[in-house]
Amino acid sequence: MERSGFAHNRCGYCGGSMRISKLTCEDCGFAHGGDSFTPRLYRLGPEDQRFVELFVRASGSMKEMARVLGVSYPTVRSRLDRLIQSLEDETRSDEKRKQRILDDIEAGRIPPKRGMRMIDAI
Question: CB neighbours of 74 closer than 8 A, spacing ≥ 6?
Fold first, then answer.
């Protein structure tokens, strides 16, 4: 995880995940505001996102990935293993967020209905 400066979809201050709070149409400028967590794949760095895109386009063939990237099969396997670990880390982080929300509901800090919407958005 990159923690220095503004890195793709990470907080430039603490390195935490950024949340989407506004979407704007590139054509007409219409904007929709809200607050939602970002999908796990969005939280990956640009290189990992590109790797996922290529992997899907290669129908999950590591042999094809090695050819497209011009690297060895073990290199592709290693990158895939790192990517899997990153996604597992993000999943654990999401579970911790859900638990914090449940704790906040139980302590009365947030209304149950809002808490459940927050959990659904994760």
Answer: none
